[in-house]
């Protein structure tokens, strides 16, 4: 190898984008900040919301996603939640799929040279599923099928749910696809216990009172079966968690423990951890501050990034 080619050589960079629902907007800030540092991924793996952002980057639709994220209000977010009475989840996900379809269209994995994998979980076997064929919309929808919240997806004769159950920060996927240097973005490093309110009060996992929002903006449903389901699911007694809160908090605990275990066994070269413990599950309307925190998180690990790159340059 010549001296010039040695200077121009850089490692094949993998970017592992973790799960985190609304906290996932931080991935946009991370990608923006990395680009300003001259770092662009060659491989992307994404779990749940990480798959959403990863697919948008792959298709050069990140600007569109960011504009949409910054335009979301609480009321608009509620309009995307097509609640179901009889299904495998509280939300069908049809409205969100329509939004993704509008921006991603029929784009498929095979249309792009960059390796990209969306991670999901086989609901029957518990196996980790790597989605890397077919349409991106189908794969992304499967990857963010949070159990109990979104209906599972039938993909290749398998019912699959959110990949966060088995691989919340998919470093191993980047490793398997040939990445030489891996940057991982963990959105859940500080969510357990950090949002507890003064006096021991239990916060809403959504970030706001979903039941009150539904009452205020869908009064016509009062007395319906759907209304009864909403009250049963989201109603909170004084200083007690709702059914929804118990379910999501439990998933957060499991996700946190799995992420810690897997990252210990499969450590990335650079670990980015945005501080998002104060962001609720459905606070998508806080995109401005979430994206800004993603950028700030990259600034905090700049020495690690430089060290990792220098190791590969020697």
Précis, in short:
The chain is an alpha/beta fold.
Task: Describe the model.
It contains 13 helices and 10 strands. The longest helix has 23 residues, at 243-265. The chain is α/β, with parallel strands linked by helices and 314 residues long. The chain has a single domain, classed as Cytosolic phospholipase A2 catalytic domain. Helices cover 43% and strands 14% of the residues. Strands 1, 2, 4, 5, 7, 8, 9 and 10 form an 8-stranded mixed beta sheet that branches. Strand 4 (116-122) and strand 5 form a beta hairpin. A motif (GXSXG) lies at residues 46-50. One of its GO terms (molecular function) is hydrolase activity.
| Cα Rg | 20 Å
Kindly provide the name of the CATH class. Alpha Beta
- The overall strand count is 10
CATH architectural designation:
3-Layer(aba) Sandwich
Spans where pLDDT lies below 50 across 5 or more residues: 1-6, 219-223
- Please provide the ordered H/E string of secondary-structure elements: HEHEHHHEHEEHEEEHEHHHEHH
Please count the helical segments: 13
How far apart are the first and last residues' alpha carbons, in Å?
Answer: 13 Å
CATH third-level topology: Cytosolic phospholipase A2 catalytic domain
Instruction: Give the strand content.
Output: 5-15%
- Average of pLDDT: 87
Assembly status: single chain
The global form is globular
> CATH-wise, what's the superfamily?
Cytosolic phospholipase A2 catalytic domain
Number of domains: 1
Major β-sheet profile: 8 strands, mixed
Alpha-beta classification: alpha/beta
Classify the helix fraction into a percent range. Answer: 40-55%
